[in-house]
Design brief:
The chain has 356 residues and is an alpha+beta fold. 38% of the residues lie in helices and 17% in strands. A hairpin with a 2-residue loop joins strand 1 (124-127) and strand 2 (130-133). The longest helix has 18 residues, at 2-19. Mean pLDDT is 85; it is low at 178-184 and 186-193.
């Protein structure tokens, strides 16, 4: 297949030099090599110019080569004419290439490097069943995704991605070499001691919590009409922070899930010294460790006290910040299903506001 590969890329390189660019030329070489490795290879039969045109056309479809608004741009008719093939031959070979390599439009595996930044399929990851755009995630999440090979580079640090990851690896390695005594001391200074086991009374109690929206992508018009946006929620102690998140999500009429965390035992929202509880995905983050998994942390285990305040951060991209205050701790009422929303002040803001 070496001769076949060389014959095809000789044509495609010339076409790319005249009408496309080196990015396209390299991508076409990669696709040709992938087809050569197939067993049996479809390139074993057929004319060289037909395959050269078909492969080029297939990658052009993935990267919108035939869209006049794009640069570079050629029409499919111009492509067929240059390779000296009919439109039916070009289309059939192109479809065969796309089928063999499982290509589709804006395919992350066959996207031009210069267009990766604008390709949403590359940056959308599923975290515990929640779709998130990693470009809006905290840097530590982006670095972890890059390390795992889930994204091609760290957003806004394309040329420095390897260096950043390597530097943090060195820092992590140096930390692991420290003595266990100093490590325990450091951890104890940053993280509070674990909560004692929750009492049966705490797990049965009902916590009345006021959730106030304090920051987010709000329009001036909305703020004027809704100077205060509050929700009062009752939740039982045996229920979890994940359950609390779900009822807050419902209380504010949100539509799409995102990453979130609760921040307790600090001075309120955004306190870097607060205890942080989030999704299991981020538990093992060496640079911003969590104190617990929201799905396993019961409300009654948090040691909440009357008038205590803590923070709730929803959507790390748009950053909706909430201040939560403990209004009461009381006995459960018979035949009442918890958690429940008991009071609403102010209209729920749209999750994605139109600022135009």
């Amino acid at each position: 297949m070496v001769e076949t590969f060389n014959s095809i890329v000789e044509l495609t390189d010339e076409f790319a030099h005249e009408h496309l660019n080196e990015e396209y030329a390299q991508l076409i070489r990669q696709a040709t090599a992938a087809l050569c490795r197939k067993r049996p290879s479809p390139l074993a039969k057929g004319q060289t110019k037909s395959w050269a045109g078909g492969i080029t056309h297939a990658l052009g479809m993935v990267n919108f080569l035939f869209d006049p608004s794009q640069t570079p741009h050629v029409t499919s008719a111009q492509l067929y004419q240059w390779f000296g093939i009919s439109s039916s031959t070009g289309q059939s070979k192109s479809k065969l290439v796309r089928d063999k390599l499982d290509m589709h439009q804006i395919d992350p595996d066959w996207c031009l490097p210069s267009r990766m930044e604008d390709n949403p399929l590359i940056w959308i990851l599923s975290v515990n069943g929640i779709l998130m755009d990693v470009r809006s995630a905290p840097l530590v999440v982006q670095i972890d995704a890059f390390r795992q090979g889930l994204i091609p580079y760290i957003p806004k640090a394309k040329d420095q991605s390897e260096a950043i990851a390597a530097q943090l690896d060195r820092l992590s390695s140096a930390t692991k070499k420290s003595t266990s005594k100093s490590r325990k001391k450091q951890q104890s200074s940053k993280k509070p001691s674990p909560h004692p086991p929750a009492s049966s009374e705490a797990l049965q109690s009902v916590y009345v919590l006021e959730v106030m929206l304090i920051d987010g992508p709000l329009t001036d018009k909305f703020i004027q009409k809704n100077p205060h946006v509050l929700r009062t929620i009752e939740i039982q102690g045996h229920q979890t922070l994940a359950d609390f998140h779900q009822i807050i999500f419902k209380a504010f009429n949100r539509e799409e899930e995102h990453m979130y965390e609760f921040q307790l035992k600090g001075q309120g929202p955004r306190d870097p010294n607060a205890e942080r509880y989030g999704l299991e995905f981020a538990l093992n983050d060496d640079f911003a460790p969590l104190n617990g998994d929201v799905a396993k942390t019961q409300i009654g285990s948090l040691g909440l006290e009357l008038e205590e305040m803590f923070g709730y951060w929803f959507d790390f991209g748009d950053s909706w910040w909430h201040r939560i205050q403990v209004l009461a701790i009381q006995d459960p009422k018979p035949r009442v299903k918890y958690p429940r929303i008991t009071n609403r002040i102010g209209t729920s803001p749209p999750q994605y506001a139109d600022f135009d």
